[in-house]
Amino acid sequence: MAGKKGISASQVNLAPAASKRQPTVRSLVRGLDILRLLNLQGELSTARIAAETGLARITAYRLLRTLERGGYVVRDVSKRYHLGPGVMELNSSYPKQTWVIELAAPFMQNLCRLLGWPIVLATNNGPRMVIQHTTRDQTGFWLRLQGPGSPLPLLQSALGLVYLAHTKQPLRNDLVRAALELDGGLMPDLQRNPQQIPRLLAEISERGFATLRRSWQSESVSLSALAVPIRKEGQVFAALALTYYQSAMTGREAVRRFAKPLQKAAEEISVAF
Questions:
Q1: What is the domain partition of the chain in residue ranges?
Q2: CATH 1.10.1040.10 fits 26-90, yes or no
Q3: Which positions ≥6 away from 238 have C-beta within 8 Å?
Q4: What percent of the chain has pLDDT over 70?
Q5: Quick check: pTM over 0.70?
Q6: At the topology level of CATH, where does 95-272 sit?
């Protein structure tokens, strides 16, 4: 995509550092996958968890029993599992984003009612954006979106791109390098041609919003997103996005309908913060 003149990869070193394949403990990764799934979908049976994670049913059962003993999941009378109090204990030392519930949530709910599509707010955590709040359950559309606590890649989400575009140097370069190191295999075009990134981010910064077609899938339906930064005193501290069915409208129509209301809500959240 074309950007401002004078911005090129020669100004910043965006090439990802050489990495070595790191060993993983497969059972730990699988257990975390189960916790993420339950965080997204709520109560599920062992069979459904096995199907969703691609695990053998006996493997899913053993992992669930281990997580149950630790208090990370709980099994109800119908033998369906949901997250347990142990998850909250893990989160007890994480900085509380109470401002999301107290301040941002009402604006997000109003915007969701006005526009009719789910609204998502995320903050940055290094090479990831982390969803803090979403109105996914307040619309008439069934969109299987990720819930609070779920990570999003910086360079493959509208939320991440708009956050990066409004982050000041040299932090922006550090975040881009970390994102390429972590997610480079998922985006070969950007990995092969990192010089595209400054131009892309410059364009987003000039527009004031980021758009992304095919941002993810929901029950095999392609979704798109439009995101804006939330700033305070010239510093970006969060990002706000609207997600919609890609087939429902063109990207240009989405910008025409949603960009200004999203920007207005971001300004209102910033003033309230």
A1: 26-90, 95-272
A2: no
A3: 104, 121, 122, 123, 124, 132, 163, 229, 230, 269
A4: 78
A5: no
A6: Beta-Lactamase (3.30.450)
Query: What pLDDT score was predicted for residue 54?
Result: 93
What would the pLDDT profile of 181-228 be if each residue is shown by its tens digit?
777 666 666 767 778 899 999 999 999 999 998 655 444 678 899 999
Average pLDDT over residues 255-265: 98
3-state helix/strand/coil string of the chain: CCCCCCCCHHHCCCCCCCCCCCCCCHHHHHHHHHHHHHHHHCCEEHHHHHHHHCCCHHHHHHHHHHHHHCCCEEECCCCEEEECHHHHHHCCCCCCCHHHHHHHHHHHHHHHHHHCCCEEEEEEECCEEEEEEECHHHCCCCCCCCCCCCEEEHHHCHHHHHHHHCCCCCHHHHHHHHHHHHHHHHCHHHHHCCCHHHHHHHHHHHHCCEEEEEEEEECCEEEEEEEEEEEECCEEEEEEEEEEEHHHCCHHHHHHHHHHHHHHHHHHHHHHC
188/179: higher pLDDT: 179
pLDDT on residue 255: 97
